[in-house]
Design goal:
By secondary structure, the chain is an alpha/beta fold. The chain has two domains: 231 residues, Rossmann fold (3-Layer(aba) Sandwich), CATH 3.40.50.2000; 177 residues, Rossmann fold, CATH 3.40.50. Helix content is 46%, strand content 16%. Helix 1 packs across helix 16, helix 9 packs parallel to helix 10 and helix 9 packs across helix 14.
Length: 417
């Protein structure tokens, strides 16, 4: 039987680049870590070519991956970076068709033994590589995108966001139940990775398919940093990171700050990111009279975000809908405790040894529970220090090294079957 190192794997990873977080960073980290166990042939978007070719020579990998690039075009690339636009999928579908055509030649050229549809993780565009599953084992995932913003939270959104997210609920219902290519791809897959327990439940309930839990992102265990919490003993310093849009829940964090102010709990929050709702959130800061508690930093490079994490006491993560957010594991890798909703992929990763999760019940209850827990952590600084110390255990369990080895072992088992 072949060893892991000799397995040639074709990976489709539309988003794959070394200098980014989120899904782009996720694709990159899977590729470089799997390359220590397998020989990868990677199809990715041409917009990442320059960054990839600058970084690959610097890496000490067991097997250097071979990259092929397909251009989605300037408009498709713009829509990808904008995020959330339904228009992107027409461009992405054409990209996937080109990937399928290209793969037909790559399979024989590189003696491919496994095909892995890695990302984008959203279920609604499965691509076409599953059509090869009758002759080559096909792996899909981590698959995600089944989570939805709860309806009672949408009711608190602006009119524009209400229309958008109510429409997403309807469209997603139709896609989950009636998208024939999704159903075909799922049933053609030899193995499916689910990015959360929520996705596992949907796959079982709707499609009667068993899946393997594998959160789509990982942590850098070797870079774990134990920093000194409460650099400012006069307040609790909160960090909020993300795209400023409805599903990220920034207004919940701002309302929480108002409650903390009313309860004489000194807190400061730095907001990293930008987005379509930034203007509205700045207005809300003025309305709530919490200007002195809030700093908007805008969008900054991922490496700067990681450095910034060393200066805070808590990652305040209010998102209502996610896969497994990269920023949560980056925070834990920097010894930064987490306060978040018990939902989606971060609900699976964060435990009571490294942070606090509150139930996803309603807008007002989220504010109340976040306020109560931040007040508790301010008064109980020892608990924050415990969380920070224990984060190392969670990071080790979720490390890229560990997860890539698990996936490589699964590849090997698929070849035995």
């Amino acid at each position: 039987m072949e060893s892991n190192n000799s397995i040639n794997v074709l990976v489709s990873s539309f988003a794959c680049g070394p200098y980014w977080g989120s899904e782009v960073g996720m694709g990159w980290n899977w590729v470089i870590n799997l390359s220590n166990h397998c020989k990868l042939v990677v199809i990715t978007e041409k917009g990442f070519q320059k960054d990839i070719e600058a970084e690959i020579p610097k890496l000490n990998l067991e097997n250097k991956p071979t990259f092929y690039y397909i251009d989605i075009g300037n408009k498709g690339r713009e829509l990808f970076w904008r995020q959330g636009s339904f228009l992107f999928y027409s461009y992405y579908n054409k990209w996937q068709k080109k990937a399928y055509t290209l793969s037909n030649g790559l399979i024989s050229k590189h003696d491919i033994k496994i095909i892995h549809q890695l990302n984008l993780i959203g279920f609604r565009e499965p691509g076409y590589l599953w059509k090869f599953s009758n002759r080559i084992p096909f792996v899909w995932g981590p698959v995600g995108g089944f989570n939805q913003v709860p309806l009672n939270y949408i009711a608190t959104f602006t009119l524009k966001n209400k229309l958008f997210y109510y429409s997403k609920h309807l469209i997603q219902f139709l896609q989950v139940h009636y998208h024939s290519r999704v159903r075909k791809a799922l049933h053609a897959s030899n193995l499916i990775f689910a990015e959360s327990t929520t996705t596992q439940a949907v796959l079982k309930k709707v499609y009667n398919i068993e899946s393997t839990l594998m959160n789509e992102t990982g942590a850098d265990f070797q870079d774990f940093y134990q920093h000194n919490l409460f650099c400012d003993n006069n307040s609790i310093n909160l960090l909020w990171v993300g795209k400023i849009q409805g599903l990220k829940g920034l207004p919940i964090a701002l309302q929480t700050l108002k409650n903390l102010k009313e309860n004489n709990i000194p807190a400061k929050m730095t907001i990293v990111g930008d987005g379509p709702d930034e203007k509205a959130c700045r207005k809300l800061v003025n309305k709530l009279a919490i200007n002195e508690m809030v700093l908007f930093m805008g969008k900054i490079p991922n490496l700067e975000v990681k450095r910034l994490m060393k200066k805070f006491d808590l990652l305040f993560f209010t998102s209502l809908k996610e896969g497994t957010p990269h920023v949560v594991l980056e925070a834990l890798s920097n010894g930064l405790p987490i306060l978040c909703h018990d939902a989606c992929g971060h609900g699976d990763v964060v435990n009571d040894s490294c942070g606090i999760k509150i139930p996803l019940q309603s807008y007002n209850k989220s504010i109340q529970n976040f306020t109560k827990n931040i007040a508790y952590l301010y008064e109980s600084k020892f608990k924050l220090r415990e969380f920070s110390k224990n984060a190392k255990i969670t990071v080790e369990q979720c490390s890229w090294e560990k997860k890539s080895k698990e996936v490589a072992d699964i590849y090997k088992k698929l070849l035995i079957i």
